Amino acid sequence: MRASTTGRVLHDPKGGSFRFDAGAVCLDFVHTGGEGPYAVFESLHAPDDLAAWLAEPPLDVTLTVPMTAAELDTAKALRQAMWVVAHARADGLPLPATDVAVINHAASAPSLAAQLASDGVTAGWAAPVTASQAMSTLAREMIGLLTGPLAGRIRECAGERCPLVFVDSSRPGARRWCSMERCGNRHKLRTHRARPSSDG
């Protein structure tokens, strides 16, 4: 991954959008859609959708081998496994073995290989660049996150009915919200409305 910037713009199916920085690219990927009640947030409807997501910073991955529908299904299975383990870690629960196996399987494939450009100051990805390599890179980042110094900082947003997960890399470790502009402000508004009126 060539840039340190994380975060993507998430779109609410009811309207509106906001920028959410999960603190790790693998967790940004986790929030591209979901299963069950979260299927309404699905953004990866076709292989081209995932290819476009991968092409954005910080990955800047341009696939040189077209992605197949089967590879998209595999990527979504990895996404779901990472969603489950991230929430399990945030809740202090054991990580489900089946989901751990899915992540490990994805990580066992060759990952993206960085390649220095001829100018000596920029980098790209060595060809061929495949969807499998991109998923392996994300799976390996997830493993590093779960086993690294920020493993205890994986949290679920404290907002009411907000399932977004993030890694709190702030120095004080006091992040509570997916976004201060979204759930943070909603909490402030509810708190303000709940205060007794000074007129009484």
Automatic annotation (TrEMBL):
Pfam families: ABATE, zf-CGNR. The lineage of its organism: Bacteria, Bacillati, Actinomycetota, Actinomycetes, Streptosporangiales. InterPro entries: ABATE, ABATE_dom_sf, Znf_CGNR. PANTHER family: BLL6575 PROTEIN. This is Zf-CGNR multi-domain protein. Gene3D superfamilies: Jann2411-like domain. It comes from the Bacteria. Residues 153-195 form the Zinc finger CGNR domain. It comes from Actinomadura harenae.
